[in-house]
Amino acid sequence: LKGMAPGYQTPIKPRTLMAAGYEMQMIVGADAPITLQTPCWIAWLDIAPGEHFTPDVPAHWHGFAYVVQGELQSDDFARAMAGEGLSLVGAQTLSSATGARALIALGQAHGEPIVMRGPYVD
């Protein structure tokens, strides 16, 4: 899709989802305000102390969780504190003993080589 014309979307407030133990602001994904050409899922997650969250994404997607506040742990026992990130694969469960705020981004790999030329990635 590198040669397609750019498209623009008017920024609007993310959709907020609340459940027992967490609050999430959906930025990109199903029923989110922004749609992209590549399947992906991006959200802000505020998780309460002692709670857990599992994103509803396919198992073959890859991504990260960047912790802004608190501490977050994935179900493979990787741990990140504020200012650090976790590498995620698929629908890994995230938990926090202290509570946390994190940006989570997951998506389908595009399988294309990335070549750096000049000030942009082709």
Describe the structure.
The protein is an all-beta fold and 122 residues long. Helices cover 0% and strands 48% of the residues. It has no helices and 11 strands. Strands 1, 2, 3, 4, 5, 6, 7, 8 and 9 form a 9-stranded antiparallel sheet that branches. Strand 10 and strand 11 (120-121) form a beta hairpin. It is globular. The mean pLDDT is 88.
Brief description of this entry?
With 122 residues, the protein is mainly β.
What is the mean pLDDT? 88
Helices and strands: which structural class?
mainly beta
Hey, roughly how much beta strand do the residues contain? Answer: over 45%
Rg, alpha carbons? 16 Å
Low-confidence regions: none
Element-by-element helix/strand order: EEEEEEEEEEE
Q: Note the overall shape.
A: globular
What's the β-strand tally?
11
Outline the fold blueprint.
Layout: E1 15-19, E2 22-28, E3 40-47, E4 51-53, E5 62-74, E6 79-81, E7 85-89, E8 94-96, E9 100-107, E10 116-117, E11 120-121
Antiparallel strand pairs: 1-2, 2-3, 3-9, 4-8, 5-6, 5-7, 5-8, 5-9, 10-11
Give me some keywords for this one.
single chain; 122 residues; mainly beta; two-stranded antiparallel sheet; 11 strands
